[in-house]
């Protein structure tokens, strides 16, 4: 691996230090380790990134042994966390952009969970590990150095408590559904632009205790029912009750059919998440969103209110359609179950009928044998 030409800045990751550099004429991120204690996480990330290839996962270009480092794709827009909470001034964005970021995250994680021979679990999904490129329109999952050993994981990831599934910090057996929990918290965070459990304060253990007792972020006012249902299902305490990431991805794809961000903008439109326009209106395509009314204009306000009512009616119909689709799927599943049970019942009836026929045949054969035996006994007595 060639030595990178120059270092422009650095930032701290879950392990090691990340530098921006120029390598073979392109901007790259160079991730190095600071101590031998971080080498295990380095090897985990190297092994896992070497296995994956997906547009929503940061690319690995190569690695070096001396110095020990990873050469990775550079994300020029920084992390989703910085866009949400640290940028100054904070860029505005619509709920449609938030939905797009969450869909892309779900696509990347669904890819990881579908890997063979077993699912690859990220274990540390949070906005700090979600990078943005292409003027903020494309999301990339990064930081695959999470330790498999639960004790090491808990020690190194106390900053991840707000997104951590309860079964993980409780020391229980956990599956890829822990990533689904984290995704649900991320969805809430990007829609509200608030840090989850920020009101709790204190240490990470205070957050863990609250999550263990069932505390979740507050529901979002005027959030469309299909989005709210998906979000709350994802952070269910029981992993078995959470949807798979494949289902999350498919549901988000359906929702995004009426929720596309404007690709020509950089994160934002004039209708931010603040102001008088309801959240539910912001889930529409930018061109379908109502314009802010002119001050002191009754006609403009009347048009605005009519537009809001039309949006609400449209989204109500969309919610009903989504409900009916889910109900149809449930009924189809129940019908398939009934058909399987009927087939099993029919097979059992046939087997029972055959057993009755066999029993009748055996009974007749038994009676014939008894008759033959009596005849033989009678003949023997006669000869005696």
From TrEMBL:
PROSITE patterns: PROTEIN_KINASE_DOM, PROTEIN_KINASE_ST. SUPFAM superfamilies: Protein kinase-like (PK-like). Coiled coil: none annotated. Its EC number is 2.7.11.25. It catalyses: L-seryl-[protein] + ATP = O-phospho-L-seryl-[protein] + ADP + H(+); L-threonyl-[protein] + ATP = O-phospho-L-threonyl-[protein] + ADP + H(+). InterPro entries: Kinase-like_dom_sf (IPR011009), Prot_kinase_dom (IPR000719), Ser-Thr/Tyr_kinase_cat_dom (IPR001245), Ser/Thr_kinase_AS (IPR008271). GO terms for biological process: immune response; JNK cascade; positive regulation of canonical NF-kappaB signal transduction; positive regulation of MAPK cascade; positive regulation of metabolic process. Belongs to the protein kinase superfamily. STE Ser/Thr protein kinase family. MAP kinase kinase kinase subfamily. This is Mitogen-activated protein kinase kinase kinase 7.
């Amino acid at each position: 691996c060639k030595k990178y030409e120059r270092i422009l800045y650095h930032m701290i990751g879950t392990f090691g230090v990340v530098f921006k550099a120029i390598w073979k004429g392109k901007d790259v991120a160079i991730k190095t380790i600071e101590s031998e204690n971080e080498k295990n996480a380095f090897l985990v990330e190297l092994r896992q990134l070497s296995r994956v290839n997906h547009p929503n996962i940061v690319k690995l270009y190569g690695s070096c042994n001396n110095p020990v480092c990873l050469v990775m794709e550079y994300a020029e827009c920084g992390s989703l966390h910085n866009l949400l909470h640290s940028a100054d001034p904070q860029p505005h964005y619509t709920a449609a952009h938030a939905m797009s970021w969450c869909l892309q995250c779900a696509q990347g994680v669904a890819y990881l969970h579908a890997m063979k021979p077993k699912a690859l679990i990220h274990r540390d999904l949070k906005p700090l590990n979600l990078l943005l490129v292409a003027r903020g329109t494309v999301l990339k999952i990064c930081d695959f150095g999470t330790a498999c050993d639960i004790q090491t994981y808990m020690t190194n990831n106390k900053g991840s408590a707000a997104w951590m599934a309860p079964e993980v910090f409780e020391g229980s057996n956990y599956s890829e559904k822990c990533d689904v929990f984290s995704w649900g918290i991320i969805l809430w965070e990007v829609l509200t632009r608030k840090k989850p459990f920020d009101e709790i304060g204190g240490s990470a253990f205070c957050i863990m205790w609250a999550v263990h007792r069932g505390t979740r972020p507050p529901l979002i006012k005027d959030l469309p029912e299909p989005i709210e249902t998906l979000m709350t299902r994802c952070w269910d305490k029981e992993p078995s009750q959470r949807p798979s990431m494949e289902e999350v991805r498919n549901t988000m794809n359906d929702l995004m059919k009426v929720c596309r961000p404007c690709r020509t903008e950089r994160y934002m439109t004039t209708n931010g998440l603040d102001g008088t326009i309801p959240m539910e209106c912001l889930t529409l395509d930018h061109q379908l969103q109502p314009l802010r009314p002119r001050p002191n204009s009754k006609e403009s306000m009347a048009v605005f209110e009519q537009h809001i009512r039309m949006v609400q009616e449209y989204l109500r119909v969309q919610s009903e359609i989504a409900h009916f689709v889910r109900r149809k799927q449930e009924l189809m599943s129940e019908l398939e179950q009934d058909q399987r049970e009927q087939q099993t019942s029919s097979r059992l009836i046939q087997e029972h009928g055959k057993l009755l026929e066999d029993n009748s045949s055996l009974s007749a054969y038994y009676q014939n044998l008894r008759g033959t035996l009596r005849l033989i006994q009678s003949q023997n007595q006669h000869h005696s």
